Amino acid sequence: MATVRELPTFINGVNVEGLSATVDAIKASPEIAKFKFRIENRWEDASQNRSTVNGYFGAGQEMTRPMPFVLKADEPAVLLGKDNSANPVEYLLHALASCLTTSMVYHAAARGIQLEEVESTLHGDVDLRGFLKLDPKIRQGCQGIRVQFKIKADVPDDQLEKIAQLGTEHSPVFDSLTNGVPVSVTAERL
Predict the structure, then answer these.
(1) Of 104, 109, 93, 91, whose CA–CA distance to 10 is shortest?
(2) Which whole number is the average pLDDT over 122-140?
(3) Are 86 and 94 in contact (CB under 8 A)?
(4) What is the DSSP letter of 95?
């Protein structure tokens, strides 16, 4: 008698069996958990530059995407740019928003929590006096970042905050921003 194979269960668009299998594979072979992401950047003109995202190392092997992603950066006109794309701080906010959201959605799915909609608004405060070194007491980076989630799910209101915390508890970008990460910079002749 032939057995009927069940289709994977998807919660929030996440293949929950696949997620569980990934966790089990990492438990069995912890070395496959190590990933190294890369980005290559090239300055174009004034405040404009472009980054290319393609290869990365993960699951114990070198991986290449079917098509590279290109990310352009610029500054608004008031900051002497041409305003052709998001600026680096806006990309930082995007990285944080998307990582918090993905982490929240995956971990909610793993717990069987169905989310209908998730939206967020992020604000990053930068004081140019720090960037321009006009006041040594003001840092060059963001003085603060605020994240506001709106979540639609069939749960009591008091559970919404716990769902949002799934993002902050598991997001690599949130962890990198809030706990710092060593960054080394070198230069060589082109």
Answers:
(1) 109
(2) 97
(3) yes
(4) H
- The range of the structural domain enclosing residue 76 comes to 34-85
Closest C-alpha among 81, 100, 183, 98 to residue 141: 183
pLDDT of amino acid 2: 53
Same domain, 107 and 149: yes
Give the C-alpha separation, 147 to 36, whole Å.
27
Which pair of structure tokens corresponds to residue 164? 């949002």
Query: Measured between alpha carbons, how far apart are the two ends of the chain, in Å?
Result: 67
pLDDT of 1 over the 70 cut: no
Amino acid at 22: T
DSSP result, 111-126:
TTPPEEEEEEEEEEE-
- Predicted confidence band of residue 5 (pLDDT cuts 50, 70, 90): low
Classify burial at 93, counting beta carbons within 10 Å of its beta carbon; exposed 0-12, middle 13-18, buried 19 or more: buried
Average pLDDT over the chain reads 95
Q: Is the pLDDT of residue 80 over 80?
A: yes
51 forms beta bridges with 41, 71
64 and 143 inside one domain: no
Residues 44 and 119 in one domain: no
Instruction: Assess whether pLDDT exceeds 80 at residue 24.
Output: yes
In this prediction, residue 6 carries a pLDDT of 67
Rounded-to-integer distance, Cα 29 and Cα 61, Å: 13
